[in-house]
Amino acid sequence: xxxxxxxxxxxxxxEKGETILSALNRNGMHVPTICSMKGxxxxxxxxxxxxxxxxxxxxxxxxxxxxxxxxxxxxxxxRVLKARKTNVELLLSNHPDDCLYCxxxxxxxxxxxxxxxxxxxxxxxxxxxxxxxxRSSPAIVRDPSKCILCGRCVRVCEExxxxxxxxFAHRGNELRISTTLAKPLNFSNCTACGQCLISCPTGAxxxxxxxxxxxxxxxxxxxxxxxxxxxxxxxxxxxxxGLKPGIDMSKVILAVLKRYGIDHVxxxxxxxxxLITEQAKIFEQRSGETGGLPLIxxxxxxxxxxxxxxxxxxxxxxxxLKSPQQITGSLIKSWFPGWAGVDGKEIISVVISSCxxxxxxxxxxxxxxxxxxxxxxxxTTRELARMIRLTGLDLDQLAGESAAKGVPAGGTAGNLxxxxxxxxxATLRSIYHCITGKDIVPSRLHRFRIHKSCHExxxxxxxxxxxxxxxNGLSNAVALLDEIxxxxxxxxxxxxMACPDGCTNGGGQPIxxxxxxxxxxxxxxxxxxxxxxxxxxxxxPAVAQIYHEFLGEPxxxxxxxHLYTTFTKREVLL
Amino acid sequence: xxxxxxxAGILERFPQIKRNALIPLLQAFQDEFGYISESAIASIGxxxxxxxxKVYGLATFYxxxxxxxxxxxxxxxxxxxxxxxxxxGELLNEIxxxxxxxxxxxxxxxxxxxEVQSCIGACGQSPVLSINGKYYSGIxxxxxxxxxxxxxxxAG
Amino acid sequence: MLAEKVFLLKLAQGDLRDMTPSQAGKVSLLNRExxxxxxxxxxxxxSGIVAGARETWKAIEKYVSERSIDIDLCESGSIGLSSEExxxxxxxxxxxxxxFSRVKADKVVSLLDDLFxxxxxxxxxxxxxxxxGQESWADVPFLDEIPFFSxxxxxxxxxxxxxxxxxxxxxxxxxxxxxFLKTIRSYTFTEVCDLVTESGLRGRSGGGxxxxxxxxxxxxxxxxxxxxxxxxxxxxPGAFMDRTLMxxxxxxxxxxxxxxxxxxxxxxxxxxxxxxxxxAIRRISNAIHRxxxxxxxxxxxxxxxxxxxxxxxxxxxxxVCGEETALIASLEGRRGMPSTKPPYxxxxxxxxxxxxxNNVETLCNLPGxxxxxxxxxxxxxxxxxxxxxxxxxxxxxxxxxLVEVPMGTSLDxxxxxxxxxxEKGRDLKAIHVGGPxxxxxxxxxxxxxxxxxxxxxxxxxxxxxxxxxMDDKTCVVNIVRxxxxxxxxxxxxxxxxxxxxTRRMAEILGGITRKPVDEExxxxxERFKGVMQLENLADVMKDxxxxxxxxxxxxxxxxxxxxxxxxxxxxxxxxxxxxxTCTELRNWYIxxxxxxxxxxxxxxxxxxxxxGTTRHPYFIVQEKCIGCGICYEVCKFAAVFYR
Lengths: 574, 156, 643
Known about the structure:
heterotrimer; A: alpha/beta; globular
């Protein structure tokens, strides 16, 4: 039953009980918002979305006013504009005048608001709150001086990631976002998933940029820079280069990296393919052991840290394999030197990933060999985009390059690991082959591709019925994990991805992001897989080559040395 | 009784695991130990199945909770309007000058701590100061100096 | 014990219409119409303790034990004379109760010496309480003849400072709990709501919303559980009426809460009281305990079928928790951040259930309304703004204390006739009504009959009723700055206009009251820019803030800009503070003719701004001088002066 709203003289229809904001947006009218988050209950804190409603003395926040009766509304009256402008000016009066030097220059919501509201002078003088930067984490840097206290990071961390590493502390003008006891991020229960970063409107949360180190390595003549990039990066970087979302830029990236001076380039998907091959074998073994299942994936570094903090008793069930980027990185440092005839000690192994937690992961002691990290640098998609802009190359003119001949560079099913449900789908193809000796028709597993935060299904593999669950977004995982922990639920294979929607929505991805962009990114991954000629990791000749030349066979001693890892309980304030 | 036993004793008094027990729990810890420690935050979080960031975030919001132990002599200075007009500002400056601490701090030797308190409504007696619950009202800067000196002398 | 309980309950229910002489005798002992031995009551509540009542008590104990005198030494609440504490009262058998002020420990011996020799000293005397059946004292003024009391209409505060707040018997013997038992016996929930709506009772915390309407809204929302919350988070600087009511007559509040809970169909009530009010907590806890013992709290109260539990919750201290949604958040174990309204708490409040939050003073009005009927209440005050209001007066007033007057009384009467104006030798400059979220009232506006609407139409507010009296030596701008800094500290920080706005306004006001050149090098242009923003910021804060704190924070600024603009202009353009309160705007000089060159001022100067050689006149360097005036204080030759 519709309720009539007269907005700026025009009539629109609203549903009873919906907010004014939702009614406006549905009818193509927009008011600025800062603290509002899609899918989460309104906060009403920022007061940017205020509108004039006839009969109400003060301005009314449209995000938290539920329509019950017909209303007359003005969304852009002088009174409203004055309020919005003053609000933003108040924010600016407590914000560093740092735009040109800021990581978010050009993608900052505060910049956009100032521009939209035509703020052209500093009318409100005043002292700025003193804050210290937190650079303790290898992945995420906090700069509280740029924080506008919108609270999005707090809500994402609590409600979507089930971690709550950050919360509001103190009050009034002492209000700040803080970890427990204001400990550095590195000593908190932060998993570095980066969702806070994605939701942050300003440069208060940025990644720990490693681009200068990469630049230095490239220009050091004796160093051999070997890079790998993930499929999630390939389908997203276009957004920061003025192109539509969902374009596969793999070949362009390859070309740019080579032109930039990187010596060799791999696709992380090759490591994912190896992961899947090993994982299928492990699943077979565990199926025979009592209490060996479910096999829980460990390819997501944020999830691994989450498990080490909250589910230490489930650690023995985790797949003992490293993540795809660490596997590829291990091969780069152990097998590649021999193959390419170069000095392994001079290799700088670089990962370009959509994941911020991968930056943390690279510094774990388990990811070192003789004290040296297997992966030296991790750059995000955003850092890659900046690098591409720096090269000044005309992307249209650039002919997409393929990998150098003979170098086993590409993955197959491994590309699917970029989306939630993908690792399960890809691993199941190899499990099917392991058990039945045959290849499953890929479309039979396409129900893994239905966008759900928690997905349970059974797949008939020969005589067995394998129960699979996939979950993305850590707070969605919590309920399921508790049921598994207490034995209430029986599952054989569990895929956990920390970020909602999987790696295509990782902490290192281009900002802004919305449902349409995410769909475009995952669609590009599915097309990548659909259009490929090989669908099973076990059928990938590149994988076969590496096993033949180096690893031997799945589960070998060499494999265990380079591809396997261990997990330990992490003692932090939870 | 060691710290763990004391903590367990407090948690026993709150068998109901509900969010609305958070403030009474924190108050019990504040009363028992005189401040909120890291172990307090960790045990409250575990007891109520709450993230510690929420416990900390709540405790920093309110005046009652402190994160450093109070001194042997805890000075409370009322900052109501009448007390302000009666010279509470000057008293605060004097105390800061003598003891070297400001609002919310404790002296290094652990002898004195200072809290500027919200108006308690004894406006006819302004300015109002209390040390460990003993009140001194209508005092001047010179009085304050002498009072503190007396406590310093008593402490030896 | 059981017999006593039965007797008291019968009394409470009004079942002892035809009392036997022995019963009547019991009642008159309980309500202290008669005492068998001398009764000394000491105001041992917060206002008394701060002034030294504990020491007074000990001195009295010592006196009577040394002389083996048998007395009844009793705690009481405050009679509302905050600046005259410690107040004690004495009732000799057969005689009226006499009140004395400022009875510090060292005054006890001489006072009691006089009294036990039947002599009433003039010194420290306030007056005697007129009471039927008691012989009055000669040459002692009656309280009801003293303007401070006679011009008040003490309905809610009637028993404060007079009764023993720990005694349920005394409360009942004076007619207490009659109203509650009448309510649950004779009225339905709706009837109580209607009754209170008809009486015209409006919220006394400042909102002025019809109490009965608020109840009705909660009553009409169906839910498995409803809550009644008493808002005793009285953090308003200068407001102490709620505390006095809780310390002086806790049973009255609990009776009011019980009536309110019944009216909305709730069996669960909470009292949210700030933890700093230790004495009030002690008294309320005792009262709740007694009521449970008497069966007036718990299941099936006196076979009525009505259940009620009242619990105490100590507020951990935040001014913003006086706002109802913030209070509810605090009770739920969250940070006290207000939330948007609608939905209103009466529809969805504590734990998502219908919740009514009522102020202490509002609740204390209820027993009287039920007992005497709505028409009685309507006969007090103004139409549309009925009943009395308690104002707490402090600052430079001649007396600081509590004044309960009918709505419609003017501020003029309160300040000049009841309080007696400002301290001797000073002139009244202004009064500030409503605390940090209130408004400055100039003398010419003080004739307005006080009501929510009358004040609002003049751009003023009542707030919780705190009145700050300011004399000609008080700087209006400085007080406004103090209020803004207070609100800045107390803001929860959730919404931008309040969090950032209060901070900027406090800075701008600070810039006006402090020396123009400070260590940050703030230029005159910056200062003017800030001043021009004052009104803009105030407007946006009022219009856009999420809760009442932010919306009302600009009130002091807006009201002073309206009525005291010349003081602002003096500070801004002339860099002068005519009341000489803004110390940094004072320019100190040394008179070379009077200065002996003793150098004491130079030694004491905290800014090292005085230079010179001994036995020659010294000189103050204006650029370094911070205006504190210590040199003036220490100079023995009156050689230091300011312009």
